[in-house]
Amino acid sequence: EVQLVESGGGMVQPGGSLRLSCAASGFTFSSYDMSWVRQAPGKGPEWVSVFNIDSSTYYADSVKGRFTISRDNAKNMLYLQMNKLKPEDTALYYCAREITGSDGNDYWGQGTQVTVSS
Q: Which tens digits make up the pLDDT trace of 96-114?
């Protein structure tokens, strides 16, 4: 059974930092591109970043230069280091497995809440 479990969310002041983690199990983690996706209250899901199996990484323009995605295939872990956080980064952050050879995600975690507020 595929499982993705996020952690590391919380409340932080603007300008602060958080590091999200995603523990993956039930599949060959190193064989899949993995993404972070977020959903703010009242809005649809927004793709944030992807770490591909060829080690290429991509970011949404809204987080470029502030967020860094990484992964540890030996530990089946995906991470998102978030710096210089802004109130508009407030959202539920999900770890998601990319569908091989296609756009989209087939498995999501339960999410971890990030709230940026003074």
A: 999 988 788 999 999 999 9
